Amino acid sequence: MGIQSPIAVKAPPNMQKWTRSVDFPAVRLPMRNTLAEQNVQTHFPHRSSHRHVHRAEPSPSHLHRIVSAAPSPPGTLVPMPSSADRELLRRAIALATQNVLANAGGPFGAVIACNGQIVAEGVNTVTATCDPTAHAEVNAIRAAAKALNRFSLAGCRLYSSCEPCPMCLSAAHWARIDAVFFGATAADAARAGFDDAILYQELRKDPPARRLPQTQLLGDEAWASFAAWIASPTKVNY
User: Fold this and answer.
1) How far apart are CA 121 and CA 43, in angstroms?
2) Using CB atoms within 10 A as the burial measure, which of 18, 193, 203, 215 is most buried?
């Protein structure tokens, strides 16, 4: 199925968010014959096939996080991942490995697809661009928004080679991504030296108790920005 013409989408202001976990298999994938020449690419549509060496059966130890972009009551059943979801995730894993072998950045890759068609891809380019926010998921989200010419990616799914860090998961929420599929877990990333556990621990603490000091100042003055936003007749909600 092809991708429809980009249409600007406004997210309802009362949009609710919820998460749900279901069993998801671990997968291993060999390298493709050619390395990615670009860190972020846009495809309409994607026309590549991928082989795999091993495909494990679903295991309770591998979880798949779903981020719903539409108002859904808690307890709503989430469909099991399809074969297409697995192939798109394999593409993200291949990108991550290719990025390492090309000495272009960290071992992370991401794919964003709408209606089963790849819209954008991204890899980690933190060291290549000297940008600490240039994670694979963020790069893919930026590329997809640009390709579709809209700030809402409702109707799209994010496939990440590894469980998104708090920053990337937040970006997926803000982009209104329908669902997130990931391969390796945060624990796997920690074994490779990318430990996000500290970030999750910090978020559970009150701001004054965090390792990165946070202090509120000039609250009354800062509210003026929100007052201007509320009063604006031309604002575009997102």
Assistant:
1) 8
2) 18
